[in-house]
C-alpha cells in the first residue's frame, strides 16, 4: 500500500489493517493502530510504520485508547519465506530473548550484521528493537493480569535487568510499571506463590470474519488423547492442550465463544519465561494472523470456489503448536500418535482433566521405536539434520524430509503445510492423495461440509 491508501484506512478507522501497519502523530508523540477511535490527525502530521517497534524506535509511545501492541500480527510474515519473514517468525517465537541476535542470525544462516541490515531496511527496526517491543507487550499483559512482583515480571518477560524493564515501560507506555498495573483494577489473579500455576488470561486478537466453529470442529476431529481435547457443547466449546516449551511445559485453553474480535484463552506455565513463545505457537495453530479478506477475495475469483467462500467466509488454515509433533503425527496418524504419547510422553506433574502428558520429544523416540520410518524422522529432528522451527527454510526442510525412509511427497507436503505454515502447498492435490489421510485436508472438510444439505 502507498501512503495515500494507508491514510484512507486511518480516516475510515478500518480494522482490517490493524497489525498490517501503524501510524504515528508527530504533534502528540503517539502511535496507534489504523482503527483508533481518536480524531483523525492531519495528513501532514502522520507518519507510517511497518511495525510497532519501528514506531517506538522513532520516539513514539503507544496510544492508551487503541492499545496498538494488542493487534493481530501481519499475515505477511507467516507467508514470506525469505530471510525477513523467517526472522520475524523466529523473533515472535522468542529466539532473540533466549539466544540473542547472534543466535537468531545463526539459525537463519547469515551474519548478525546482514540480518540487522535487512530488517532495518524493510521494517525500520532491527532484531533487538523488535524483540524489545515484544517483551514490553508481554510485560504489560503480566502486569495487568497477575499479581506477580514487578521484579519477577521483568525477567519473565525477557528483560536483562529491572532497570532496563522500567526504562522500556516508561518509554513505550509513558507510565511506570506500577501505574500500568493500577489501570487493570482489582481483578488480578496469580499471586506470588501461585505464580505461573494460576494461569494468565489472554485475548488473542484476530481479523474478522473468523470461522470459529469450523476450526473447533477440526481440532476436535484431530485431537490426540492425553495431549489435547475439546470439551463442551457446540458454540461454547473449549479447546485445551499441553505444550512442550523451551523452559518447561504449559497448558492452554481457548474458548470458542467470544464477544469481540478475539479468542479468550488462558495459559498455565511451569516457567513464565515461556509466555511469549506459548502465545505465538498458539496463534500459529489457530491461524490468528491470517488476512481473511485477501484469502476470501483470492478464492472467490475461482467460479467453483466462490459459492463455498460465500457460504463460509473466514475459514482458516490451521498450523501446529509444535512443529516436531506435527511431523510425527503426519507420518504415523492419530491412533499411533496416541500410543506414542502413552508410552513415551512426559507425564504432567499435575494432570488436568483428560490432559495427562506432553507429546514426546524426538530424542525420546529416536532409537526407541520399532518403526524404521518414525525412528529415522525422530533421529533427524533430534540431531538437527531436520529443522522445523519457526524460521526453518521450507525448501531445505522438504529436501531433507524426502531423503528419509517412508516419507513421500505427500507426507513432506503435509508437514510443510501444517508444521511450517506454508500456504502454497496442497498434499491432497497430488495423485493418490485422497487415499492417504492420517490427517484429512482442511479444504476437503470444508468442501464436504459446505456442499452438504442444510
Automatic annotation (TrEMBL):
Pfam families: Ada_Zn_binding (PF02805), AlkA_N (PF06029), HTH_18 (PF12833). It comes from the Bacteria. The keyword DNA repair applies. Its cofactor is Zn(2+). The keyword Transferase applies. Gene3D superfamilies: DNA Methylphosphotriester Repair Domain, DNA-3-methyladenine glycosylase AlkA, N-terminal domain, Homeodomain-like, Hypothetical protein, domain 2. Keywords: Activator, DNA damage, DNA repair, Methyltransferase, Transcription, Transcription regulation, Transferase. Residues 85-183 form the HTH araC/xylS-type domain. This is AlkA N-terminal domain-containing protein. It comes from Streptomyces durocortorensis. The lineage of its organism: Bacteria, Bacillati, Actinomycetota, Actinomycetes, Kitasatosporales.
